[in-house]
Structures are given as C-alpha cells and as structure tokens.
Amino acid sequence: MSSIKKIAEITGLSIATVSHVINGTRKVSKKSTDLVMKAIKDTGYKPNYAARMLRTRKSDTIAMLIPEVKKKLSTNIFFMEVLNGAQDYLQSVGLNLIVSTYSEEAEDDTNDLKKIKILQNQWIDGFLVVPNKKKAQFIQNITEGETPFVLLDRAVSDMKCSCVYNDTISVSARVVQLLYDNNRRKIGYIGGDINSFTGHDRMKGYKEGLKVCGLSLAEDMVATSGKHTAEAGYEGAERLVAAGVDAIYVSNDVQAIGVIKYLQDKHIKIPEEVAIVGFENYQWMEILARPLTTVCQQPYEMGQLGAQILFKKLNDPYYEETIALEPDIILRNTHA
C-alpha cells in the first residue's frame, strides 16, 4: 500500500503538503490538491482516517436521522430528496454523510437511544434531524448533547434551535382559499395522524383557511389516518362524499390517488362535482388522465440549507438560523 511519502515522491510535493491535503489541516493550492488527489486515485492509497480522528477528535462526518423507511410510505421519496440535497452540499465542503433511521411508532426508545450513543461515541461532528412528537426522549438526547444539530422538515415550537422547514400551515390555508375562490363551500379534508408534526400542521392550516373564508368546521367532512396509502384516501373519500363535500384537500398525493379512484368508481366528475387539491407534487401527478393540482414542497433545497447551516455551526457553535420555506401550489386540472 502506498504511503504519504510515496505520494510526495510522485507529486514532487513535500510530505507536509501532502499531509495537509489529506488531513485538511491547512489550506493548499488547487493545483497541489489536484496533484495529490490524482496520485491517491492512481496508487490506491487509503488514508488512515482512524488515526486522524484520534488526533483531531473529528470525523468530518455528519449523521442524518430520519424516520425508518416503510412500505407504501410516500415520505420515503421526500426524505430521499432531502438526503440528496444535504449530501451534495456536504460533499462540496469536504464532509461525509451517513444515515440512521429511528422508529416513529415504538413506545420504547431504548434501541433508538443506543444508536445515538454509538454515533456520538464515533465523534460524529454534527446531526441533521427530522424530529417526531412521539419520540421526545430520543430527540431530547440529541439536543441536550454537545454535538451541533439542525432540525429538518418539522419545527419544534418549544425548542430554540436551528431549523429548516416547509410552512405547511400557511400553504394549507391557501389551498382552502383557492378552493373557496373557485366557488367551493363544502371543503373537506383528508390527512395524516394529527399527533404527528406534518399531520398537525396541515390540519391546522386547513382550519385556519376555513376561518378566513368564513366557513365552519364540520367533523364529518374530516378524515385522518396514520396510513399514507391510496386505500386510506379511498375510505376517506367515501366518508366525505357521504357528507356532501364539493371539494377535498388531501394532504398527501398517495391518498389523493385513492380519492380519485373512489370518485371515478362512483362516476363523480372531477372537478365539476368534487374538486381535489393534493400535497407533495410527485412527478406522476402530471401524467394522470386529469393532472392533479397539488402543493409542491422543496425537499432538496431543505437538505441543502440544513447542511449549510450545520456547516456554519461547526465553525461557530453559537450560530443559529431558522428558515421557513414557502411551498407553491401547482395549478393543474382538478381544482376548478
């Protein structure tokens, strides 16, 4: 295996310069850096990162913690985009990204807390965290430590910390206003578990939108479920149509597919009889027979901005910043 000395001979640079490039201990010119990186690639040299970690107490590695991936869960796609955004930025500043998941459903935090301890003991330099209301102890264990962190996607109101999230309350209210402006007066809602961050905020925005429009909240025109599936959307649509809705705000595009299927099965015209607005804007929403009007978030940008804030915190522990991204409503053919 090639050594730093060999890399220095190949490049004509000093051993100290080669060491600075590999360990990032001093700024080196782009020309010298390129020479070293090419020699590393050509020779197959593998730097001893374990030794470097012992010296610097840093790993140049960020851990992202997200809810565990489940079958048929639409948020899987969303979190992949967040990951891509974070990884692209971190790579551009010479940092690595690893991903760990936690269970949103399990009552016992023991296994998840073990994961945090393992990551902290490996000198992870920082955390990007997607929090969950049900996992208060798990999140608290991260936020009370000395490792810098940034919250993503879900703002925690009683915690002063850096965060990047989508303002889903505001955009949900705007969805109701859009439907109202298109002469809908019985606007129903289908969404996720109201005890989750996203379910709570989208429901809150729906209620605020009704209030602004002078409409009353009718319990029989609301259907919530912890299952983000087409089947849940189908069942919710059945309930809401029975209540006489003329529009449905579906806070998840996968559930919206179920709503569309129910309306088609019952020969209910979209949007003439029942208008629909979804949430997520997956690419396949535009290739439906009647493309879905839906809310478009910015997961890639969220990941990038969260990573950028965390990088600043690595250099300044007192740095704090919160960014609320404003989702767009993509107007297609199902709202009017």
Walk me through the structure.
The chain is elongated. It is built from twelve helices and twelve strands. Strands 2-1-3-4-5-11 form a six-stranded parallel β-sheet, with helices on both faces. Strands 7-6-8-9-10-12 form a six-stranded mixed β-sheet, with helices on both faces. The protein folds into three domains: 4-47, no CATH class; 61-166 and 300-326, Rossmann fold (3-Layer(aba) Sandwich), CATH 3.40.50.2300; 168-297, Response regulator (Rossmann fold). The model has no long low-confidence stretch (mean pLDDT 84). It is an alpha/beta fold and 336 residues long.
Number of helical stretches of at least 4 residues: 12
Assembly state of the chains shown: single chain
What is the CATH fold-level name of the largest domain?
Rossmann fold
CATH architecture of the largest domain: 3-Layer(aba) Sandwich
Radius of gyration: 24 Å
The SSE order reads HHHHEHEHEHEEHEHEHEHEEHEE
User: In terms of structural class, how would the helical and strand content be classed?
Assistant: alpha/beta
Q: CATH superfamily of the largest domain, please?
A: Response regulator
Q: What is the general shape?
A: elongated
Largest sheet: 6 strands, parallel
Q: Helix fraction?
A: 40-55%
